[in-house]
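If you are new to this repository, start here. Below is one unmodified record pulled from the training split, so you can see the exact layout before writing a loader.
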Amino acid sequence: MTKNSLRALKTDLSQRARRQRFFQFVHKHPLAVPVITFFALSVITAGGYSAQRLIHKQAAPLDARIVIISHDRQKQVVPSRERTVGGLLKKLDITLNEGDVVEPAVTATINQDDFRVNIYRAVPVQIRDGSKVSYTFSAATTARSIAKQANTAVYPEDIIATQPVQDFTKTGAIGKEVTIDRSVAVNLNLYGTAVALRTHADTVGELMKQKNIVVAKGDQVTPAPTTPLTPNTQVYISRNGTKIELVTEDIAMPVQTISDPTLAYGTSAIRQAGSPGKQIITYQYTLRNDKVVGRTVIQTVVTQQPVTQIVVSGSSLSGIKGDMQLAGIAPGDYQYVDYIISHESGWCPTKAQGQYGGCPPYAGSVPSTGGYGLCQSTPGSKMASAGADWATNPVTQLRWCSGYAMGRYGSWAAAYNYWLSHHNW
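And here is the target side for that same chain:
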């Protein structure tokens, strides 16, 4: 017999001996099997419960936001744990094509429920820049924004306009035709200082009038005011016998804000990027014994027009959250109120402490103990001080909640900070 055969025989005999001892033990102790079985099942059950608790703890859901997305003639309402608009669109496989516009921008943070995202799909647009014609895809709403999307360089003084396409078969564009009326570059030497200008004026005199350049007696203008302007014409304006200084200053960028009810309150988007302008202030110094004793502003010349920045600001307070305005809560506090109420009751005015899931209908009475309502007043009857309809009216409840926040914490912001630290208020 080989060594392997001997080893196998020994193993088999050992297993037989263990089985024989086990059966002898069971015969002498008949309760051993159920006891052992119960113990084994208890260990397995406890282990499974612990594992389930561990898995549940690891998979605890983060706060989700409700997002309303309007795109392609449809509206989607989805819960989202994505931090940004771009992240959510990627998760939903919503593709953005050349020229599409997203409001708010893809980098915008999703920071509230009922957050609204609008996607505007691009259409073919024709750009006519003098004799040059090009095509692009754009969903921008202003002519200047369309030109920027098409990487067409434009100057603040250029006149850019849009008009509906008259003949699609000829232009190949569906929605708009953008026309660019170019300004002309002029080199102005104003009292010894070189200034680059752009203008639509036809003559030197028209340029001076357009730029509010006023010449005094004795000033010299070269070439003559009647001279036609051509690209890069050199114009000199000089004055002898006095000390002149030119100072360049910025002109603040104008901002136009448009209220948009299709965007959530507190969100915004830039529909046209703006830029500051530049101006030159001309000072004439009064000298006495070769010393400056006074300074007078002769004129101010705008050398670069500012471009207005157009911003859309969301004004939608959809659903029950619109009641914050009716309750007299300051707009600057909406985000704090939203956070606290969302975590206390999920914006359900009839929810009692311990109730989970959806918003239950009013049961006809309110529990005498425990929290109740939007901000979980404890007990709910405290809110009677704000109105007789406190049990069901969200506006009445919010008025009471606001008084509570101000009275206990001094402000909604302070109440919010307390909630973050203690997870209650």
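Two things worth knowing about this chain: The CA atoms of residues 45 and 51 lie 10 Å apart. Confidence is low (pLDDT under 50) at residues 31-62.
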